[in-house]
Design brief:
The chain is α/β, with parallel strands linked by helices and about 200 residues long. The chain has one domain: Ribosomal Protein S5, domain 2. About 30% of the residues lie in helices and about 30% in strands. The protein contains four helices and eight strands. It has a four-stranded mixed β-sheet with strand order 1-2-4-3, covered by helices on one side. Helix 1 links the parallel strand 3 and strand 4.
Length: about 200
């Protein structure tokens, strides 16, 4: 079973996370940001990962610290769960429709951090911060994925092609990432080696 528990305590945030990427899609998540709880629950469900999170942060100042640190911790947990990556598919991609919204997500568990994030939430203009329920700032979604990619050492391409609701666009990103990641981390029967000519990922 590929499972990891990560704790990160700073002057700004406190996060305790357990991730099992060979789970059943179960989630118990309390980050103090309801919208982020919803997105991470979607990730757990659609990646068939079990995810347990207890977190607090200085959200009275801004949600940025907690969202970014959540990306760091989830990325760290993913990296620990994958280990040496022997026998995995390595690559995954998914075209995710969410009602009128649709996004394409591609993952390479390459050991090299890279994020391509081609998403423009509706109403975005310079210096604007369009918000979701409970005051969540949609622009922080990119910060979350930047932190995750860096900590997990993965290549991630996210491109939104359509959408009329920011909430639906956001759901298409997290669900699409979940499905692409689930394909990439899947163990291939009979494959034992590392899926790279370098013999190292």
């Amino acid at each position: 079973m590929r499972k990891a528990t990560i704790k990160r305590n700073t002057a700004e945030t406190r996060i305790n996370m357990t991730l099992n990427i060979d789970g059943k899609g179960l989630a118990s998540i309390d980050t103090s940001l309801p919208f982020l709880d919803h997105m991470l629950t979607l990730f757990a469900k659609h990646s068939s990962s079990d995810l347990k999170i207890s977190a607090t942060g200085d959200v009275e100042v801004d949600a940025h610290h907690l969202v970014e640190d959540m990306g760091i911790v989830l990325g760290t947990a993913i990296k620990k769960c994958l280990g040496k990556k022997a026998g995995i598919e390595r690559y995954g991609n998914f075209l995710m429709p969410m009602d009128e919204a649709i996004s394409y997500v591609a993952v390479d568990l390459s050991g090299r951090p890279h994020l391509s994030f081609d998403v423009k939430f509706l109403g975005d203009v310079k210096f604007s911060r369009p918000r979701a329920g409970s005051g969540f700032d949609y622009s922080l979604i990119k910060e979350f994925f930047k932190a995750l990619v860096s900590s997990a050492a993965m290549t991630l391409h996210i491109k939104n092609a359509a959408g009329e609701s920011n909430h639906h666009i956001a759901e298409s990103l997290f669900k699409g990432f979940a499905k692409a990641f689930a394909a990439a981390d899947r163990k291939t029967p009979g494959r034992r080696g590392i899926p790279s000519t370098k013999k190292l990922l």
